[in-house]
Specification:
Layout lengths: L6 H13 L3 E7 L5 E4 L10 E2 L3 H9 L3 E4 L5 E10 L2 E11 L5 H21 L5 H5 L7 H9 L4 E4 L2 E8 L7 E7 L3 E9 L3 H20 L4 H16 L5 E9 L4 E7 L3 E6 L2 E4 L19 E4 L5 E5 L1 H4 L10 H11 L5 H16 L8 E8 L7 E2 L2 E2 L2
Antiparallel strand pairs: 1-2, 1-6, 2-3, 4-5, 5-6, 7-8, 8-17, 9-10, 10-11, 11-12, 12-15, 13-14, 13-16, 16-17, 18-19
């Protein structure tokens, strides 16, 4: 059994035996998704590379292997995207003999990178190495708590692909997203805890924990909100509360049940049309005792893209007082229609940061982008046809 901290060395040995690899580097995306950080023996590490430019950055953003021709004619550097069920982790760069960089070998190397990604995720339960390697600077305690609470930064199934982004990545406090997938549905929540720093992080941790506890009890969406509302109110007595949007997608029909408990907003991009899904606003979780919540429904179709934003996105003003608003958002969504949900979520936050200028973000910003494929009417599942 390979020790958790020895995955890179073991991968190098295996790749040398099977593919004649002469150099193997594991690059993990940092929390802000700006750089790819080499994993070596900490605290010593190599120089980071861009997560968006260059051969390695291209492999990361496109999620496709990139073969780089190097100054050494006898070798080529193959950059392999590493992800786990749609959650992009980084890139595995492997230097192989030039004669080995043929399509069949590259595909086998891709399979190896995917397997290594699963091992890295599992190893993260027993070592801090991979979490520490991702950092360009120290996380605040509140951010440490929030990142541990998150499910990841992406999720993919045949029916949908999710990509998410948070800023300020190294100082996030109260914003959170969460999802859970099942055989027939996927549940997605975006939560904006009141306040900043540790106070906001503790509040959001309680709200998300309560929502998960209710969801795992198998109760409906509205009742999940009710139970989480009671948990937050019992702790804070209405002094602090958490704005939350709950969405539950039926994988067969594309029917979406929604509870709008506060201020996160959702937009739907269908073909060339971008529209805000108007939901009846209900009280944030924990504002009053024993609040009752009601579900609403809307429909998604194959090809739809949904973008969910916390208040720190749609409510942020620039130095001149201009709200980020729909105008800028529509421009960004129009320009990123062919990009992946991961890159679209990142682009929305990048546009927000540009909008506020030198002053930087004063509130947390969370964006979740979901591309919907759904199920074909003729797909057979569990021995029966989908509706």
């Amino acid at each position: 059994m390979v020790p958790p901290h020895a995955l890179v060395a073991t991968a190098g040995r295996l790749l040398a035996e099977r593919f004649g690899a002469r150099e193997v580097t594991l690059l993990l995306a940092d929390y802000g998704l700006t750089t790819l950080q080499p994993v070596t023996h900490l605290p010593h590490t190599g120089d980071p590379v861009s997560a968006h430019d260059g051969p390695a950055g291209t492999a990361f953003t496109t999620q496709k292997p990139v073969v780089e021709v190097t100054s050494d004619p006898a070798t080529q550097l193959v950059h392999l995207p590493m992800s786990v069920r749609g959650d992009r982790l980084g890139v595995l760069s492997v230097r192989v003999p030039a004669t080995s960089a043929e399509p069949g070998t590259v595909l086998r190397l891709c399979d190896f990178a995917t397997a290594l990604g699963h091992e890295v995720v599992t190893a993260g339960r027993d070592t801090d190495l991979y979490l520490m390697a991702r950092r360009t600077r120290r996380l605040t305690l509140a951010a440490e708590m929030q990142w541990q609470l998150l499910p990841g930064r992406g999720c993919a199934r045949d029916e949908y692909v999710i990509g998410a982004h948070l800023e300020p990545a190294y100082a996030i406090g109260g914003d959170n997203y969460d999802w859970s997938t099942g055989a027939d549905h996927v549940t997605l929540t975006v939560t904006d805890g009141m306040g900043q720093g540790i106070e906001a992080s503790l509040l959001t941790s309680l709200a998300v924990g309560a929502l998960r506890n209710a969801r795992r009890a198998g109760i409906g969406l509205a009742d999940q909100a009710c139970l989480a509302d009671q948990a937050v109110f019992s702790q804070y007595g209405g002094k602090l509360y958490a704005s939350t949007l709950l969405l539950r997608f039926d994988l067969d029909s594309g029917r979406v049940c929604a509870v709008d408990a506060g201020s996160p907003q959702v937009y739907r991009q269908r073909d060339a049309t971008i529209e805000r899904i108007e939901l009846r606003a209900q009280l944030p979780l924990g504002m009053f005792e024993e609040t009752l919540y009601e579900e609403q429904t809307f429909q998604v179709e194959a090809g739809d893209r949904l973008v969910v934003m916390s208040t720190g996105v749609h409510g942020t003003r620039s130095a001149t007082g201009e709200v980020f608003g729909e105008g800028v958002l529509r421009q960004i969504l129009g320009a990123t229609r062919q990009s992946s949900p991961h890159e679209t979520a990142r682009s929305v936050v990048a546009g927000l940061i540009e909008h506020v200028g030198d002053e930087g973000l004063v509130s947390d910003a969370a964006v979740v982008c979901l591309d919907w494929t759904g199920r074909d009417a003729g797909t057979t599942r569990a021995g029966r046809r989908s509706r």
